Amino acid sequence: MREFEFTRATSLDGAAEQFASGGEAAFIAGGHTLLPAMKSRLRMPDRLIDITGIPGLDRIERDGDRLWIGATARHATVADDATVKSAIPSLAKLALLIGDPQVRNRGTLGGSITNNDPAADYPAACLALDATIETTGGRYQADDFFLGMFTTALADGEIVTRVGFRLPQAGAYAKFRHPASRYAMVAVYVARFVDGWRVAVTGAAPAVFRWTGAEAALAAGQPTDGLLLDPSELNSDIHASAEYRAHLCTVMLAKAVAELV
Amino acid sequence: MRIRINGDTHEVDVDVRTSLLDLLREHLGLTGSKKGCDHGQCGACTVLINGRRINSCLTLAVMHDDDEIVTIEGLGSPAALHPLQAAFVRHDGFQCGYCTPGQICSAVGMLDEVAKGWPSLVSEPGTDAVALTDEEIRERMSGNLCRCSAYPNIVDAIRDVAGAGA
After folding, report:
1. For a Cys-Cys bond, which of A25, A35, A129, B93 suits B88, CB 3.0-4.6 Å?
2. Is residue B17 within 8 Å of residue B27, measured between CB atoms?
């Protein structure tokens, strides 16, 4: 790791001030992506700002048809939170599918979505549950937030404060875990709302995306087993070919539809 | 900075880059916690922070000056083994032993999570009491790798202690 200055923020304004005080700065909460990136010198910030001491940033509350989860809420907390489990049980289950127990005790919602790893879980939940992402700069709909591989609409110094997931009538997340890393080889989140279906796919392509063909088929009450994504748009790597991932998407879609709760 | 480890307060002067694991091993001589991958994948560095198990390689020491940290050295001693340490010996829950401190710290944290009713992918939804089946133990210990593959005996050791209500 390169040298950096370490500071703590106790308010969002304080964090913004520290961010703007010269050099390249980065925020840290769980640090489960940032620290490995810094160890391998993919990231070399001059200043690291700890935002875990900002009061209220990990709050979980239901407000009408939305479930709001604070950015520094840890995965293990979300997985066992009574409000989450009653409002959107499929979201609690998704949190339980992230990494392993040690990772879930440390990693945060805000960190996961701002990193936007192509195989991360929370971005799929945001897209499928039509989430509103609240930041220090304003609000984004999930459809406008995840721009591409490791890329979001966030500006420099902008901090995600909380995410409002829209309560579906029913939802399910089916994930084919890589057996060692437990990242999604492919995972599909299906959500049924009063005004339509939303289907999000992670792990398959350079970034999370909505499967509009599946949404249309589900809305029309048509079977989904004949649907197949175009492999030329999907990832091929040492773990799986694009053709295999396309097949897995269809299988995970069917699994999610069968598990809707 | 001041840091609380195994009930003792230490005054240390460290570079902010120091991971909690490096602080333990290189600065305080607590070499029980092991450095396997240094990237949060293997679990050999697992310690308990305020009772919760985490990978000490993936956190900065300076982020923990208010926390209570427990390492393998704080769980038991050669003269008075922690029940899980004794069970690992009894069941031969290791071969080379490198992952063992992490396995044991993780198992301590895991049994506490079970006692609190934390869910896992294996437990039946809606059930409060978790039945600690072998499948449940494997899922809940998935953050700790053992390259010698002593897994069957590790599961035996943990089941033994869990069954004794420890």
Report:
1. B93
2. no
What's the predicted TM-score (pTM) here? 0.95
Radius of gyration of chain A (CA): 18
- First vs last Cα of chain B: how many Å apart? 34
Domains delineated in chain A: 5-50 (3.30.43.10), 60-260 (3.30.465.10)
- What is this model's ipTM? 0.94
| Cβ neighbours of B15 in A, within 8 Å | 3
CATH number of B2-75: 3.10.20.30
CA–CA gap between residue A163 and residue A22 (Å, rounded): 29
Asked if B38 lies within 8 A of A39 by C-beta distance, the reply is yes
Q: What is the CATH number of domain B83-165?
A: 1.10.150.120
Cβ contact, residue pair A80, B39, below 8 Å: no
Looking at chain B, the domain(s) classified CATH 3.10.20.30 span 2-75
Taking the alpha carbons at both ends of chain A, their separation in whole angstroms is 45
- pLDDT tens for residues A8-38? 999 999 999 999 998 999 999 999 999 999 9
